[in-house]
Structure formats: structure tokens, C-alpha cells
Design brief:
The chain has 187 residues and is an alpha/beta fold. It is built from 7 helices and 5 strands, in the order ααβαβαβααββα. The protein has helices spanning 2-24, 39-42, 66-81, 100-110, 120-124, 126-137, 170-185; strands at 59-63, 86-88, 113-118, 141-147, 165-167. Strands 2-1-3-4-5 form a 5-stranded parallel beta sheet, with helices on both faces. It is globular.
Length: 187
Amino acid sequence: MSERINKIFFKINTHLRAFDEYLKSESSGLRDVSGRIDKDDFKTITPKPKGVGRPAMLKIFVSYSRSDARDFAEAIQTHLTDFDYTVFTDINSIKAREIWNDIIKDNISNCDIFVVIITRGALISHHVEREILQAIREKKSIIPCVHRSVDEEHIRWGLDKIQGIKFNNEYDLARELHSRINKLRNT
């Protein structure tokens, strides 16, 4: 029961922060010259349709090991798609009969941000290694997300030199990653 409550609280908190960011933005049109919210406009807030008056959606590729990070990847995909990011994971983004290796390579090449979830399983996965090396070759913006159970000395591929995210659970990961991607988007 507490896990479900935790998920609900996380979702509400995330949406409240996004709404607060929206209200702070100059494009919301809900503040008067003093910076206060115009209460009459506040009553009629409706979300803008996807793609209307918003910056282009960032394409995010998530690399992970299915052996121990599937839940983390699903949390990232669920959370970030709520905020209009296009998120690619091999679980939900490849259709039957498609050549998965080609689809993965194409999506790495076309992504704006490459997220790698570093777990013990990822450190020994040949698939994760191949994806990371392609992202490095193509000079992608990489965000390493390191699970607390992984010792930094075991991190490979030079990812220990890149500022990343340390996390304990899928909620920490989704929250911190969303914040980091927003900072990248706004720079």
C-alpha cells in the first residue's frame, strides 16, 4: 500500500512542480506586471495542445540492462513522456517483425540526449556497451545515471568523468533526470 501511495505522491509532486515552472515562465500569460497571477486567467487554464507554442520535443534514448534496470527504464519513459519528451526504450518502442538492432542504432543516431542507466547488469552487458560506444562516437549528449550499488571505480567507457546522476530508486531517478534534462533544454 505504501508503494502505491508513494507513486501517487510522486506523480502529484512532479505535476505541481511542472505547473509552477509553467506559471513562472513568461509565455504563460498568467502573471500581471507585478509578477502576481491574474486570478481571472487562472480559472481558464487549459494545457496547450502538444506541439503548439512549445519548444521542439527532445528525443531521449535510454540504454539499460534488462536484467536489473527494466523498472528504472519504464519509470523514465512514463515520467518524461508526461512532459512531452519523446523517449525510446527497447521494450515499448520496437514493433514486432522490426529488426531491433537497426532500430536501436537509428534511434541513438537521432536522439538529442543519450541516457544510460548504470547498474551491475549494464556494466557486463554487450548491448549496453555497444550503445554507449555508438553514442560516444556520434558525440551525443550523455547523462550517466548510476545506481548507488555501483562502485565508481567499476564504471567503464569514461562515463565516470561525465557529470551524472546517482539514484536509489526509480522515483529519485525520474525526478533527477527530469530536472537535469530541463536544465539542458534551457541552456
